[in-house]
Design a protein that fits this description.
8-stranded mixed beta sheet; 10 helices; hydrolase; hydrolase activity; lipid degradation
């Protein structure tokens, strides 16, 4: 690899419980001593569960009393449904999914009328606050820290919103993770937000269009949703799975397409020299056996397995970079 550090931005796609994989990837990447010497992290971005992982990675790097790998592992260990009430709730979610796959009608309740939704919101916020001291964040900002971009969708205006590192709060993170049928729209400063999957999943083009920070040499996308499938789904469950994947990839493909178009214009000499070429690499979640409903599964063994899958994927990515010289997998 080059002796000059390469600047890298890391973008984390959303995917509920599946983003325990993202946590494993980030843990492995950010604890690699060789990579730490050869790569300068320019920023993190994330949506939904990816937003939580991006926050923890950013905060773990910047706070002197924390390490990102430990913080990510502890958070997902706490996220797991371990107590009797949590396990009961998790089993209810799993059985509801099984019944729906069999075509059996199940009750539908608005999150505004569901005590479980209100309890889940409070638990989500409490979990974030146990692992991140949001009041300490302003003291971590001196202009040298990596960027942090958290995506959410404004329910009323239909516009996307990016929360930056100086705007962080538990509510801002929940705004990116508020799945409409699970949580009420989250209010932040008088505006109401839903899951960032409706906007940018995850934010990418701001890394190359934001003049506040230099363009990164590379953007690493931790990708949850498969891009391709070998055959057309015909079961209702298969159709629902593929629809979820396509919806989750739509904005990502648009964001990556913008970067690739910019690269073409740079190569053709259409843009000023301040614009530089940016490679986009992907670290993929390779579990085609998991349907979209498992994105709500919080069983400990499931999350631990996904975290380990992420560590393995990151190790393979780093090995491939070492072998090929900055090329991803």
């Amino acid at each position: 690899m080059s002796s000059d550090p390469r600047t890298v931005a890391i973008a984390c796609q959303g995917g509920g419980s599946h983003t325990a994989f993202t946590a494993g990837v980030l843990s492995e990447l950010l604890e690699d001593e060789t990579l730490d010497r050869e790569v300068e992290i320019a920023g993190f971005s994330g949506t939904s569960g990816g937003a939580v992982c991006a926050l923890l990675a950013w905060y773990g790097r910047e706070h002197p009393d924390h390490e990102p790998g430990e913080l990510l592992a502890d958070y997902w260990a706490d996220m797991a449904a371990r107590g009797p009430v949590e396990r009961l709730g998790n089993e209810a979610v799993r059985w509801t999914g099984r019944l729906q796959r069999l075509g059996i009608p199940t009750p539908e309740v608005s999150p505004y009328q569901s005590p479980a939704a209100l309890w889940g919101r409070r638990e989500f916020l409490d979990l974030l606050e146990r692992h991140v001291d949001f009041e300490a964040i302003p003291d971590l900002l001196d202009g040298s820290e990596p960027a942090l971009l958290i995506s959410a969708a404004n329910v009323l205006s239909g516009e996307f919103r990016l929360f930056r590192e100086d705007e962080l709060s538990p509510e801002a993170i929940l705004a990116s993770a508020a799945i409409p049928y699970v949580f009420p729209a989250e209010e932040v400063n008088g505006n109401y937000y839903w899951d960032g999957l409706f906007s940018k999943n995850p934010p990418i083009k701001e890394f190359v269009s934001n003049r506040e920070t230099p363009d990164p040499d590379e953007i690493w996308v931790i990708k949850i949703n498969p891009q391709e499938r070998p055959r057309v789904p015909k079961s209702l469950e298969g159709i629902a799975d593929r629809r979820n994947e396509l919806a989750g990839n739509k904005s990502l493909n648009g964001e990556v397409g913008f970067v690739e178009q910019l690269n073409d214009w740079i190569e053709a000499g259409y843009l000023p020299e301040k614009f530089t070429h940016t490679e986009v690499e992907r670290i993929r979640f390779r579990r085609p056996d998991l349907g979209w409903r498992t994105k709500l599964d919080r069983s400990p063994e499931f999350l631990e397995g996904l975290f380990a899958n992420g560590e393995d994927a990151a190790a393979a990515f780093l090995d491939d970079r070492e072998t090929t010289g900055n090329d991803g997998v």
